[in-house]
Structure formats: structure tokens, C-alpha cells
């Protein structure tokens, strides 16, 4: 028993000595300033967030991470745009005080943010206006999953090419995931639904998004059936974005993954993105298979 007790005491002393020599476990996390915003020509600014990064040891909540007292300065071609903070359940946005403000084409927007003892800047640029050369058809009939690979001429779209654009971002957005029959003539009580049951099995927030994104390397592309998540009322959008806009969508895999590569960011002194683009859109209605 004496030998056993002696061995235990020696073991405890050795353990304390080892712990005393080891480096302490780092617990202090230094938050980073994060900017997330887009300026789309012809549209109001509706999305300009400022928040701080959170440690991985804590549950991330955007509303909690949001910084509501940042000093935000936005210049449009060198002219200041007064900004105000508008709070909401998701953490709020910094928006122009003039609610009639619209982003201009072929313009430069310089953003400066000071908060949590840090300063970050970023620049976004919008492109020239452009138009459709071949608009999407205003209505389509879904052929069923077994016939999705068959080519359909009405799915081909094209638009004016823009100088300096190497990748266009294409968005297919469902405008109403609930109603379907209300858009028919005559109206019915039929509800909307998912096209593919496997979309429910994704298990991520991406599966719940109303928009699916893709890239086009040229000013024309076929719209594949897989771009549609729901039936019913949609719009197709083509974005001609600046480098930051293109890099953001590449970084997050067109919305399919929750990853971020700081090397593709245009934010200096912080994380995130502040990007600009010009866009065109067209409505389209996807009918259920008869």
C-alpha cells in the first residue's frame, strides 16, 4: 500500500509538472470585422451588413453578431451617400437614408466601415446596362424527371455580351413556393410543390433557398431543368458582375456550400465581400406535367 501510495503521489507531481511546463490553452478569441453587401444597378441597396466573426466554440447567430453602431461611409463616384441602420430580426442592414435611392450603372461605390476598433474598406463597380437578345419563354411545361435530358429549344437564352466579363451569374428564382393554382386561368386551389423529392433530403439551409445559381462563360446558355426547384411563378436573372461579384459566387460554390476563401475577398482590413453588378431579368411560369 505504501508503494502504491508513493507511486500515485509521484504520478500526480509529474502530471502537475508537465502541465506547468505546457503552453496554456488559448481561450481569447479576437473577432474580425465582416462586411457583406451588394450594389445592383437600377435597384435600391437592400443588403449591406456589418458584423463581427464569432468563435467556433460558440453558436453563431447573425442577429447577435451584427454591429449596430458602426461608422459606415459610402461614396458613389466620390459623392457621399448618407446611410442609416435599419434593424430587423436577422441583425439589420445599413441603407441609404433616401429611400428613393437607386444604384447607378457604370459607377464606382467606395465603402468604409469602422467598428470594434477596426477599419475596413472595399470598392464595388457596376457595369453598363444590357438587354436580352433571346428572352426566356414566358411559360414552360415540365416534362417529368424521365425526360429532363431531352433538349428543348425554348430553354435557350442569350443576351448582349459585356466587355471584361468572363463569367455571368445566372439565377433561377421561384417567386411563390406556396401558391400555384392562383396564377392559372381559371384559378384553382392547387398548391405549389417541389419538383424533386430528393431536394427535401438535402438537410441543409441551401435546400430551402428559393434561388438556384449557375455560371455561364458566354452570353448565351440553355436553362437546364435541374435549375428549377419548384413549379409555378419564377424569374430568370442574368448578372454581369465585377471581379468581387464573380469571386464571391466562386468562393461559395454558387450557394451550394458554406465556405469562404479570404484570398478571393476585396475587403481590406476585414472579411467578407462588397460587390457590384448590372442585371437583366425575365418572368417565366413552369407548369406541372399534365
How would you describe this structure in keywords?
3 helices; globular; mainly beta; disordered N terminus; 290 residues; seven-stranded mixed β-sheet; single chain
Short synopsis of the structure:
By secondary structure, the protein is mostly beta strands. Helix content is 11%, strand content 34%. The protein contains 3 helices and 16 strands.
Tell me the total number of β-strands.
16
Q: How far apart lie the N and C ends? A: 86 Å
- N-to-C SSE string, H for helix and E for strand: HEEHEEEEEEEEEEEEEHE
**Class per helix and strand makeup:** mainly beta
Question: What overall form do the CA principal axes indicate?
Answer: globular
Major beta sheet summary: 7 strands, mixed
Give the amount of beta strand, in percent: 25-35%
Instruction: Give the rounded overall mean pLDDT.
Output: 86
Rg of Cα set? 25 Å
Helix content: 10-25%
* Separate helix tally: 3
Contiguous low-pLDDT stretches (5 residues minimum) are 1-13
Can you walk through the features of this model?
The chain is mainly beta and 290 residues long. It is 11% helix and 34% strand. It contains 3 helices and 16 strands. It has helices at 2-21, 62-65, 243-251; strands at 33-40, 48-52, 71-76, 79-81, 83-86, 93-96, 108-115, 118-125, 132-134, 139-141, 156-159, 168-174, 211-216, 220-222, 232-241, 271-287. The strands form 4 sheets. Strands 1, 2, 10, 12, 13, 15 and 16 form a 7-stranded mixed sheet that branches. Strand 3 and strand 4 form a beta hairpin. The longest helix is centred in the first third of the chain and has 20 residues, at 2-21. The protein is globular. Mean pLDDT is 86; it is low at 1-13.
Amino acid at each position: 500500500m505504501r508503494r502504491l501510495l508513493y507511486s500515485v503521489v509521484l504520478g500526480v507531481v509529474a502530471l502537475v509538472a508537465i502541465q506547468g511546463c505546457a503552453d496554456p490553452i488559448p481561450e481569447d478569441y479576437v473577432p474580425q470585422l465582416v462586411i457583406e453587401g451588394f450594389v445592383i444597378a437600377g435597384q435600391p441597396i437592400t443588403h449591406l451588413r456589418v458584423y463581427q466573426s464569432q468563435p467556433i466554440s460558440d453558436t453563431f447567430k447573425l442577429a447577435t453578431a451584427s454591429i449596430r453602431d458602426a461608422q459606415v461611409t459610402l461614396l458613389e463616384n466620390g459623392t457621399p451617400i448618407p446611410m442609416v441602420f435599419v434593424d430587423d430580426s436577422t441583425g439589420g442592414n445599413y441603407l441609404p437614408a433616401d429611400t428613393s435611392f437607386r444604384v447607378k450603372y457604370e459607377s464606382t461605390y467606395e465603402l468604409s466601415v469602422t467598428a470594434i476598433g477596426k477599419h475596413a474598406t472595399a470598392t464595388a463597380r457596376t457595369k453598363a446596362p444590357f438587354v436580352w437578345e433571346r428572352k426566356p419563354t414566358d411559360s414552360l411545361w415540365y416534362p417529368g424527371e424521365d425526360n429532363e435530358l431531352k433538349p428543348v429549344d425554348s430553354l435557350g437564352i442569350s443576351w448582349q455580351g459585356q466587355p471584361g466579363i468572363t463569367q455571368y451569374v445566372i439565377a433561377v428564382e421561384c417567386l411563390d413556393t406556396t401558391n400555384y393554382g392562383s396564377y392559372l386561368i381559371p384559378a384553382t386551389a392547387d398548391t405549389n410543390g417541389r419538383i424533386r423529392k430528393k431536394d427535401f433530403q438535402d438537410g441543409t439551409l441551401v435546400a430551402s433557398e428559393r434561388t438556384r445559381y449557375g455560371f455561364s462563360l458566354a452570353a448565351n446558355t440553355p436553362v437546364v431543368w435541374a435549375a428549377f426547384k419548384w413549379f409555378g411563378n419564377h424569374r430568370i436573372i442574368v448578372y454581369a458582375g465585377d471581379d468581387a461579384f464573380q469571386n464571391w459566387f466562386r468562393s461559395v460554390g454558387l450557394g451550394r456550400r458554406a465556405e469562404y476563401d479570404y484570398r478571393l475577398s476585396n475587403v481590406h482590413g476585414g472579411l467578407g465581400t462588397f460587390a457590384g453588378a448590372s442585371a437583366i431579368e425575365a418572368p417565366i411560369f413552369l407548369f406541372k406535367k399534365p
